[in-house]
Amino acid sequence: MKEWRAEAVKEKGALLNSWNEEREEMRGEIDRLKGKVSTLEHQLMEVAASRVLEEGEIQPSMIEEPKDVKEEVRTIKEDEEKKSWAAVISESQKKVQEAEKWIEVAKKGKSKDAPCTPTLINMTLEEEQRRQTRALHVRVTGLKDINDVEKEVKTLTSMMGMEKPLHTKAWRVGKKSKGLGESSKERALILRFPSLEEKKEFLRKRPILKKTGVFLGDDLTLSQLAHMREVMPEIREAREKGKLAFYRDGRVVILERRTT
Q: According to the lineage, what is the superkingdom (predicted)?
């Protein structure tokens, strides 16, 4: 039981690290969108100001067409221009608000106006694209970070008894901790595979890493992590009853352990 609890604590730490990395990425996206909105608003003000200057420089004696007709044409043009800019700004603001809500919902685990945590994001194309991309990833935590991904991968494959790697690309994610010794946090290592079959073949060797402190898992999106937080009590309860329980592909999987 103590051994299981120790592994559970390590898994929790890895999950929290992953959670913080995802939150930092989303904050960066929010800052980018806010900057875009600010730029568009500034450009809109410049357009409006230039209109005023242009019209202010026109003298009544120089106007060849009737004043009421000119005013009508000018008003129509300005309205169309403002509508165009307003539409772009509105869209950017909507994205900013949506991104902020994603983080808020993920932090709390639930939202008053959302039946379940991932619902808000699952309806977006961006979220679906993230999931499709990350479906081919494996997140490795607990592997010593020596600032040399190639050597780190060789260490991992050696630990797993593999002669050659199955993945096509590897990289570290998150900010490297400035801590020293055991208190420092290792950045997660992401492995990308050419297909789901290669990924599954790689994960079949996961039991070899038991008791090594190295964990292999899915590279979950922010909404999937939030959903995982929701269902963790169910997973823990099943494990305490001696069942095999884990989170996979956005759902809880509970299996009876084989008896020999």
A: Eukaryota
